[in-house]
Amino acid sequence: MVVTIDRSYTITPSDSSSTTIIPLSHCDQTKLPNHGSQLSLYTTSNSSSSMENLRASLSKALNLYYPLAGRLRWIHGGRLQLLCNSKGVTLLEATCHDNHTTLDMLLENLDNNVLLEQFLPKVDYSVDRIDDMPLMAAQFTRLPGNGVVLGMIICRAVVDGAALGNFICSWSKLARGEDLDSSLVPFYDRGLLDSLGVSVGPRFEHAEFLTPPLWEEQKEEPQEIELATVVLKLTKGQVEMLKKKAYHDGGKDGFGNGSNSSTLSSSRPYTSFEVISGHLWRCICKVKNEGNWGQKTRVCALVNCRNRFKPNLPQSYFGNATFPTVTPTCCFDDIVHKPLGYAVRNVRKAIERMNDEYVRSAIAYIANQKDMNSLREKLYNLGGGKSRVNPNIYIVSWANFPFYEADFGWGKPVCLVPGSINSDGKAFIMNNGSGDGFIVATCLQQSVVDDLKKLFYEDIEEVYPNSKL
Question: Where is the signal peptide (predicted)?
Answer without folding.
Answer: none
